[in-house]
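User: Hey, quick favor. My workstation is busy. Could you predict this chain's structure for me?
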Amino acid sequence: MSLEVTDLRVSTSDGSPVLHGVSYAIAPGEILALVGESGSGKTTAGLAALGHFRRGLVPVGGAVTVGDTDILALAEPERRALRGRTVAYIPQDPALSLNPSLRIGRQIAEVLEAHGMADDGRVTEVLEEVGLPSDEAYQRRYPHQLSGGQQQRVGIAMAFACRPSVVVLDEPTTGLDVTTQALVLRTIGTLTAEHRVAALYITHDLAVVAQIADRVAVMREGRVVETGTTREVLGHPTHAYTRELLDAVPSLDGVAPAGQAGAPVLAAKDISVSYGDVTVLRDVALTVATGECLMLLGESGSGKTTLSQCLSGLAAHYTGSVELDGVPLPPSTRQRTAAQLRDVQYVFQSPFSSLNPRKTIAQSVELPLTRLTTMDKARRRERVAEMLDRVRLGSALADRLPEQLSGGERQRAAIARALVTTPRVLVCDEVTSALDVSVQATVLDVLNDLRRDLGMAIVFVTHNIALAREIADRIAVLLDGGIAECGPVDDVLSRPSHRYTRELLANTPKL
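Assistant: No problem, here it is.
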């Protein structure tokens, strides 16, 4: 069956329009990418295919037709009966959609049972379809015993279990490293073609679109501004907004924005971390200099986040040493002096969880000054205003709560909080992984400006090698807890010496 959305109009409960007559159609076996920045309406337009609207939103016109059925004309119980069997959904974060207390085999079986379908070996079959082991021992695993990529493929298995006609995929590879992402994309493409599924792929990643989509619809401010084949839209865009999105996509080609590297400021010496019999890091050694950005690159499970937390004092159970200007730092932030805490600051991956939802942006940014400096209140407020300007937020947002900001604004607020003490080293842990390309470009510009103007060193932790030329001077590639390769950006990207680096480059989506 095909999916057709015609003149869909959605408003808030108080009458403010959110979607302005959105239309798109998907044939069986076809993948349509719905792309746009945060707030463009793409998720609202995509969830409409399930007959689902977020709280506070109501459809006020148009039709959503699957086969011969207008989903919007159905009562909620009838819509619910369609979800999973006729129209399925794959969310962005599989960890949130899987029940942590149920074994994965049981979870897939429950989907079948909910729609009156007997198992009859379907659980085993669908696990094999997504490239996972199907034996009883694997089916008895819990979600926390799987990697992020395995969890996502279990989510795909659950979505395809009842052989639906339409599948909605909401940013399903955002948090995955490029190797796992490539595998998940191949799985989605194969299942869609083999089972003649009409697939709607919601994303902000145009490089991924180039790999998987047959057609593209570009959304902006609740409207579809351009639609066509992938080749047409990405190769010859007709709308200025589409061209802006394409210009913001990071490229492995070109020249990196080289910083003015000075003397080494932070050094890790023979860092090793183990949890029981599991070794996470083994004898890792690296340095980062004043004004330099070192990219710490690796896939999920490589140890990059653990290493970044060792550097910043958030993971204290390691052997080896971390030195600032040649002086060993205490392993834990609890043991470090105020000066040492000011000098090494950390920006978390998720600004949703790292900012206090009950404090205004100004209060959150001011907190390090209150705890780590002797500034008086007037000077603290001046300093907060300066930092909000530096990260391009401005005073207008200072008194807002985190929930009143976009994802990109929240991330820049988190960066402002880390920078307010003028650190000499900033450790950034996957700070752009959930951002759309234009917001990501703004955040990278801010970081480059700050290290140039302040001489700050940056350790940039990521699984996205495509960002290398936008931010890094050097790249350290982590593999299984050790450094597989380390060198200048041009050397690593143009003449990689390790097979793993070559694999990462080969799996990186390109326009």
